[in-house]
Design goal:
The complex is a heterodimer.
Chain A lengths: L13 H9 L11 H6 L6 H16 L1 H6 L7 H11 L7 H5 L6 H14 L5 H13 L32 E4 L2 H5 L5 H13 L3 E3 L9 H6 L6 H14 L3 E4 L2 H15 L6 E4 H10 L10 E5 L13 H8 L4 E3 L18 H4 L1 H16 L5 E4 L2 H13 L5 E4 H8 L2
Helix pairs in contact in A: 3-7, 10-19, 12-13, 14-15, 17-18
Chain B lengths: L2 H27 L13 H16 L4 H13 L2 H6 L1 H34 L5 H4 L1 H7 L4 H27 L9 H28 L10 H8 L6 H22 L7 H14 L3
Helix pairs in contact in B: 1-11, 3-12, 5-7, 5-8, 8-9, 9-10, 9-11
The chains are: A alpha/beta, B mainly alpha.
Chain lengths: ~400, ~270
């Protein structure tokens, strides 16, 4: 760790600073924290992170008064332990959902990560991520011109925005769906559904850059500004009136982060694929055949708790004739994370596997043979764990199921 | 100098010091940024902007939402009640009692010391039933409230200590800080009764049957031959000192949440209403 130990309070708003003080230390969050449940590592708990960071803040600001109460500058060991806890969090936001005093914990964790980046106390994998995105404009480090590799075996390639004169809907595919073969089926299916519904759509291809979500959540948000500016300008140039994503993290970034980061309204509508599908079904533009099966739905954290979309995916699933939805024990705002969020998979893959195992257990208890989700990262994480455990559980995205059910 | 005069001098001086301590602590939090202001804006500017926004909120149509959220989430702790009624009851016993007792002390101070100086004795400010009740330390309601809330506080502290030390919940994390705050709360509650009992003995008061702990304690001690005035004075200053220790320690202990939690719960909660 080579960074200065000085603390930059500018990573937080005054309200967030008071949130650190408002924590009652009741421990309610601990019972719900998925990574703590999986790893039993004390430093991961929301309670521990807040207590430690509050001590850092007071030690930094308090001078002699703080020293009187035993607080001082953070030691390297304290920062290292703190970093392990803060980066061991999937940013699922379940602690915020159960906090009796409604602390917006997820934003606090991101602020803490920003501080840890200042202190150069972050997992090495995140440094590599930043380098990849900086050089290749995507998280995997592939040539960004290969963004449409997932569409190569489609009968009709998705139209490119730059060669389409009038575009109604722009589909922002996202890095995971673009570069990870395990989830190519998601954008492939979504394009099929859009074509069938007669939606005028296009994709950005190589002009699509990483939305910046992994950098923002890593605490490296300052590196995401240029990505935001580029992407927004690309969509504006296309003339699309709405942007749709199949990735909840991209959706969250477009919907919440970009307007705040750029300090201006985007000028077009942002939808998640499930919202668009629900609307197309409502308009009768997607005739569906029967699919006799029992499925369970996994709420992606960035779609549900962090963006407030719980109904749209359920409306879509319930519109498929013959399909029966069996809910898991923990669902909606209390849904357990898949373990794949918060960049945890990059720094601590074993932790991701443990959390995914817990979620798969909940899915198994429903008796469903298929877990449906609305997130490529959740699909990757849960499917990989199911394979590791040799479970007879398949994982699919909502759009795949709709594509399958199209008459 | 009589005891009450000395009390007021010390009390006001300590309150002034405490306000300074709070100002220092708040200045730490004001190092954070305020949305809409440059990152390097001065802390004074941030404070004024925040106070302005607060005032604007209170005089806007959203004031109702804020007050509703303050009541539901900040003071009644609806979510805690839903998740664990037992913990909610303990919390209410401690904080509810502490703050009602604190509030009672403040308005008693107003009724006894401030209002008679502001208005003639015949003015309604001094003649209304509440002011008269508060000036009369023998008043049944005042005696009942003081003893009842003190007892609720002690029961709450005892249950919290049981949950923390005897049969701790898995989710609780204990620090010495927590034990100190509980001990201070217990001592403040416990020393309140001897103060009342010694006062009854020193003043020979007889109309304090509503003081259902203080009066029996006084009757128990009555056969002893002691200088009750001196004992009352000692107990009074001890009680006063303990309250001030807690007050000064609060910003450095978990007790600070008592102020900030309702505020944050209301601010964050109003956006979900």
């Amino acid at each position: 760790m080579a960074g200065s130990r000085s603390l930059d309070p500018g990573h937080f708003t005054v309200r967030q600073a008071l949130e650190l003080e408002a924590c009652t230390r009741c421990g309610e969050c601990m019972a719900w924290c998925p990574t703590y449940r999986a790893a039993q590592l004390e430093t991961i708990t929301p309670l521990s992170k807040i207590t430690q960071f509050r001590a850092f803040w007071k030690g930094h600001s308090g001078g002699w008064l703080a020293r009187l109460f035993g607080l001082g500058p953070p030691t390297e060991a304290a920062i290292a332990a703190f970093s392990e806890g803060v980066y061991g969090c999937t940013l699922c936001g379940r602690c915020a959902a159960v906090c009796p005093v409604r602390l917006r914990t997820r934003e606090l964790w991101v602020g803490m990560r920003e501080q840890l980046v200042d202190w150069e106390a972050y997992p090495a994998a995140l440094g590599a991520l930043r380098a990849n995105v900086g050089a290749s404009r995507n998280t995997s480090g592939e040539d960004n011109a290969q963004r449409l590799i997932w569409s190569e075996n489609l009968e009709t390639a998705p139209p490119l925005a730059e060669s389409t004169p009038t575009v109604d809907t722009l589909y922002f595919v996202g890095c995971v769906a673009s570069f990870y073969p395990a989830v190519y089926a998601v954008p492939q299916s979504f394009c099929g559904v859009l074509e069938r519904a007669g939606v005028s759509f296009a994709v950005l291809g190589g002009e699509e850059w990483c939305c910046g979500f992994p950098l923002v959540t890593a605490g490296m948000g300052q590196n995401a500004h240029c990505l935001a500016r580029h992407n927004v300008e690309a969509v504006r140039r296309s003339g699309a009136r709405r942007l749709v994503t199949t990735c909840p993290s991209c959706y969250h970034t477009w919907q919440r982060t970009y307007p705040e980061m750029l300090g201006e309204p985007l000028g077009f509508e942002v939808l998640h694929a499930t919202e668009l599908l629900a609307s197309l079904l409502d308009e009768g533009r997607l005739p569906l055949r029967r699919l006799e099966q029992v499925v369970t739905y996994h709420d992606p954290c960035d779609l549900g708790r962090n963006s407030g979309i719980y109904e749209a995916p359920r409306v879509v699933l319930q519109a498929i004739p013959g399909l029966r939805l069996a809910e898991m024990a923990e669902t909606r705002q209390h849904a357990l994370c898949c373990g794949g969020g918060g960049d945890v998979e990059m720094g601590a893959p074993a932790l991701t596997e443990k959390v995914a195992h817990l979620r798969l257990e909940q899915a198994r208890q429903t008796g469903a043979a298929l877990i449906v989700t609305a997130c490529q990262q959740c699909k990757r994480t849960l499917a990989a764990q199911a394979r590791r455990e040799k479970l007879r559980l398949r994982v699919a995205d909502v759009v795949e199921l709709v594509h399958q059910a199209l008459e | 100098m009589d005891r009450l005069t000395l009390f007021w001098i010390l009390h006001l001086a300590l309150l002034g010091l405490w306000c300074m301590e709070m100002a220092v602590v708040i200045s730490w939090w004001l190092k954070a940024r305020v949305p809409g202001l440059p990152v390097d804006a001065s802390r004074w500017r941030k404070l004024w902007v925040l106070l302005g926004r607060g005032a604007k909120l209170l005089f806007s149509q959203r004031a109702g939402l804020f007050l509703r959220a303050l009541l539901q989430d900040g003071l009644a702790h609806g979510s805690l009640l839903r998740s664990c009624p037992r913990r909610w009851a303990v919390h209410l016993a401690i904080f509810g009692s502490f703050f009602v007792l604190g509030g009672l002390s403040i308005i008693t101070g107003l009724a006894v010391e401030i209002l008679p100086r502001l208005a003639p004795s015949g003015h309604w400010l001094n003649q209304n039933a509440v002011s008269q009740a508060l000036r009369n330390v023998e008043h049944p309601v005042v005696a009942l409230l003081n003893d009842g809330l003190g007892l609720a506080l002690l029961v709450g502290v005892a249950l919290a200590a049981w949950r923390r030390f005897v049969r701790p919940d898995a989710q609780l994390r204990h620090t010495a800080n927590d034990g100190l705050v509980l001990a201070l709360l217990a001592l403040i509650g416990l020393t309140g009764y001897p103060v009342e009992a010694f006062r009854l003995l020193a003043e020979g008061a007889s109309a304090a049957s509503w003081s259902f702990v203080g009066a029996p304690l006084a009757r128990l001690l009555a056969p002893l031959d002691a200088d009750w005035q001196a004992w009352h004075s000692t107990a009074f200053w001890g009680h006063f000192a303990l309250t001030n220790v807690l007050l000064f320690y609060a910003p450095f202990s978990r007790f600070s949440h008592a102020v900030f939690s309702p505020l944050i719960a209301a601010l964050n909660g109003m956006e979900t209403l």
